[in-house]
UniProtKB/TrEMBL annotation:
An individual GO BP term: carbohydrate metabolic process
Domain called Glycoside hydrolase family 65 N-terminal: residue spans: 17-180
Domain Glycoside hydrolase family 65 central catalytic: 304-681
Name used for this protein in its record: Glycoside hydrolase family 65 protein
Binding site for substrate: 337-338, 593-594
Keyword Translocase tagged: no
Species assigned in the record: Candidatus Mediterraneibacter pullicola
Residues in Glycoside hydrolase family 65 C-terminal domain copies: 694-752
Active-site residues, record numbering mapped to chain: 479
Higher taxonomy: Bacteria, Bacillati, Bacillota, Clostridia, Lachnospirales
Length: 782
């Protein structure tokens, strides 16, 4: 990482961009964004700048501008612009001489600071400092402080303009049918932007402490409103701008002015203090301390966790996590399997309540998923590949150009990427496993599982030759391979889904007949049991070939390899391969966009022999371009899990810097949410080797040699446990008294964890033991 520098000070960990850089403008706006689970505000300069892509995104603020367009997360009115005039000279980042410019993000608090020194006409200098945060204490609050100081001791006239700009669009498309503005008491500006279903309301007040402006003018322009605050004959002035943002129905509009006023009275510093206290609670629970890591790596780990916090819709199950969080227009704010497979594990172990809300979102979407299944001629529920605010499919139909025809390629994922339906079930099962929350299962979990199982069985076909159940014409996780039969990931996940559905159905029928009957009414499960049994006996699960490779699908191994894969792996532009080959050509080569079979190995860490995992990681990675940000973290986790430290560290490093790398062409349209979750999975499931399944907590660490110690907390079965793992030992300590012990397996021995364990680690023998224990457990399929 060269473009971004790191600085550590007490309680702060800064990522710094130390020069004005139009080339990195979009990227820095996204990765330095202020996000609090309700809003995400891109870190644009307060001055207008040529390359800017200013934006504010609110969880749940979806709209469909035109019938033939997809529903998308609306780019909401902007509050971050500040115009500045000093002695009638207008300042600009692109036209005024800038002596220095620094933009920095504190990854612990999420505060952004931007500082400039300008040289004005006649050689005078002016310093401008802008600070911002989206409050974690009051999620509708966005705070900014804007300070201007004239150097040289000579006073001047300073005019600061700022307000609410509703002219913002989603790449040219305005979602607002109307934007109405007003000013309350010559103090508070208001903008109401009407969407189809609701409206986005922004209120803003600027205060300037003791240095009152000599004049304040409010100007109403088409869809924008701003105030100009004039300070005459001053050396320094500081404005605190409080913005309250909400959508109709979330807050009492009449009370919103009072909300703004109360916040203004408190001021930036006090509100920041309250925000930091809230963030501290998050870090106390989520923080991972690793001794021996470089400061860059430490910052990157914290960076990913700050964004996981900021991207996750707080306090609601109406919405879920977008693939780009709340930091950009990329993927239109849609929700993918990224949530359940990459981000869900973090919340499962850090805040299971939040994990439950993420599943709640899918439950609410069940009817949409039922409709999709019906539309495609299947039974049960077929979850959308891309979801917005409902369970309906939102994947756009066309994307990138076909280089031969010059026309847009059809996007098949929404039609053929079935695996998301099993990924959701996998998350439900993990949730039940780790929390034991049977109430959730009874109210929602079983229904999701049964409906998904019905879907899988209805889309499988019996192969005439082999007599086995096969799943044809799908796209697996690797999106460079379309329309294939028996994608290994998909088939195994489908089998897993039907397997647990059957297990629960049989159990409930026997032990909870009333519940079973109610579920039967909704899902028709009783009529499925025999079919499910036949499916489980006959489903084709690709096995390792004589080289130990699990075929990604029926034809993958017979295709030629892509020559010159390095060209595309090292290209600055993602998916550069599409500039040289058409989709059809790519589909007919052994080239992966992202991990596929290896993802399966991560989800079922005890399913395959260590040797099989090793061979498949090696084989498939050679053929992977890593054009998806979901890729490196997957290879890293698998490598760490089997103790291939060298490979794990190499892939982990790439995963850590998916957004923080020096490539200005990535992340401009938003951070890569899944990769951030993937970093956590790799740390906890991979390097720390902690995994809870079937009532047993296994701890099989594979720390890199340079790391001396890893410390973190995880919630398992309602108990928050502090782990401290080093090369010498494993310490586990619970925060509260345990009602019953947890079965632990570590260092080749079994323990009963009753609140405290201190296990010493012997280096020799450990690897051997790990290997011995890795017998494949295909029995869960039987
Ligand atoms: O879900 C992913 C997919 O696996 C690869 N393309 C991007 C999507 C969103 O991150």
């Amino acid at each position: 990482m060269k473009h971004y520098k790191i600085e550590k000070e007490k309680g702060r960990l800064w990522l710094i961009e130390d020069a004005y850089s139009p080339l990195f403008e979009e990227k820095t706006e996204a990765i330095f964004a202020q996000c609090n689970g309700y809003m995400g505000v891109r870190a644009a300069h307060p001055f207008l700048s040529i390359e800017e892509k200013r934006g504010m995104f609110l969880r749940g603020a979806f709209d469909k501008a035109y019938d033939d367009e997809a529903t998308e997360l609306v780019n909401c009115p902007d509050v971050t612009w500040f115009g500045l005039e000093i002695n009638e000279e207008k300042l600009h980042t692109d036209s005024t001489k800038m002596l220095s410019c620094e933009r920095r993000l504190d990854v612990l608090s999420g505060e952004l600071q931007i500082r400039y020194v300008f040289e004005l006409a006649l050689g005078r200098k002016a310093e401008v400092e802008c600070r911002r945060f989206a409050s974690a204490d009051d999620r509708h609050l966005f705070l900014q402080s804007y300070r201007v100081r004239l150097n040289g001791g000579e006073p001047g006239d300073i005019r600061i303009s700022t307000g609410i700009n509703g002219q913002i669009t989603n790449s040219g498309v305005s979602h607002f049918h109307s934007v109405s503005e007003r000013v309350y008491d010559r103090e508070i500006m208001e903008s109401i932007g009407k969407l189809k279903k609701n409206a986005v309301v922004v209120l803003t007040q600027c205060t300037s402490g003791d240095s009152k402006p000599s004049k304040t003018d409010f100007v109403l322009k088409r869809r924008s409103i701003y105030g100009t605050y004039c300070f005459d004959g001053v050396i320094e002035v500081e404005i605190c701008k409080v913005s309250v943002v909400f959508q109709t129905g979330e807050m009492d509009g009449d009370k919103a002015c009072g909300h703004v006023r109360r916040a203004s009275e408190k001021g930036y510093d006090r509100l920041f203090h309250e925000h930091v206290s809230a963030m501290r609670k998050f870090w106390e629970q989520a923080g991972i301390r690793i001794r021996g890591m470089s400061v860059e790596q430490e910052a990157a780990v914290c960076f990913s966790q700050y964004h996981i916090f900021g991207m996750t819709p707080y306090d609601t199950e109406e919405f879920s996590i977008a693939a780009k969080g709340l930091t950009g227009e990329g993927y239109k704010g849609h929700v993918f399997w990224d949530t359940e497979i990459f981000l869900f594990p973090f919340w499962l172990h850090v805040c299971p309540e939040q994990a439950k809300r993420l599943l709640g979102f899918r439950y609410i979407g069940l009817d949409g998923a039922r409709k999709k299944a019906k539309d495609y001629g299947y039974k049960g529920a077929m979850f959308p590949w891309e979801a917005a605010g409902t369970g309906e499919e939102e994947t756009p139909l066309y994307a990138a150009l076909n280089i031969h025809t010059g026309k847009a390629n059809k996007v098949w994922s929404g039609i053929k990427e079935y695996h998301v339906t099993a990924d959701i079930v996998y998350a439900v099962e993990r949730y039940y496993e780790v929390t034991g929350n049977w109430k959730f299962m009874e109210k929602r979990g079983y229904e999701i599982i049964f409906e998904a199982a019905r879907f899988w069985v209805s889309c499988a076909e019996k192969d005439e030759k082999t007599g086995m159940y096969v799943i044809r014409d799908v796209i697996g996780p690797d999106e460079y391979t379309e329309h294939v039969d028996n994608n290994a990931y998909t088939n195994y996940m489908a089998a897993f889904c039907v397997k647990i559905a059957r297990k629960y159905a049989v159990l409930l029928k026997k032990e909870k007949p009333v519940l079973f009957e109610a579920l039967d009414k909704k899902t028709g499960v009783s009529g499925e049991l025999d079919t499910w049994e036949r499916f489980l006996k006959g489903i084709y699960l690709p096995q390792p070939d004589r080289n130990g490779i699990i075929p990604q699908d029926d034809t993958f191994l017979s295709k030629p390899m892509l020559k010159n894969i390095e060209k595309y792996r090292s290209a600055r532009m993602k998916q550069a391969i599409l500039l040289d080959y058409s989709r059809e050509e790519i589909v007919n080569m052994q080239v992966l966009k992202q991990a596929d079979v290896v993802m399966l190995m991560n989800l079922f860490p005890w399913l395959f022999m260590e040797e099989t995992v090793r061979k498949n990681v090696l084989f498939y990675e050679k053929r992977t371009v890593h054009d998806s940000s979901l890729s490196y973290c997957a290879y890293a986790q698998a490598s760490a899990h089997i103790g291939d430290r060298e490979a794990a560290e190499k892939f982990f490093e790439n995963a850590l810097f998916v957004d923080l790398n020096d490539n200005p062409l990535v992340s401009g349209d938003g951070i890569h949410a899944a990769s951030m979750g993937g970093v956590w999975n790799c740390l906890i499931y991979g390097f720390a080797g902690v995994w809870y399944e079937k009532g047993k907590l296994s701890v099989r660490p594979h720390l890199p040699d340079t790391w001396q110690e890893m410390e973190f907390k995880l919630i398992v079965r309602g108990i928050r446990i502090r782990f401290c793992i080093s090369h010498q030992g494993i310490i586990m300590e619970s925060e509260a008294k345990l009602e019953s012990s947890i079965h632990v397996e570590a260092e080749g021995k079994e323990y009963e964890f009753q609140g405290y364990l201190n296990i010493s680690r012997k280096r020799e023998g450990r690897e051997e033991w790990n290997k011995r224990q890795r017998e494949p457990s295909l029995t869960w399929m039987g």
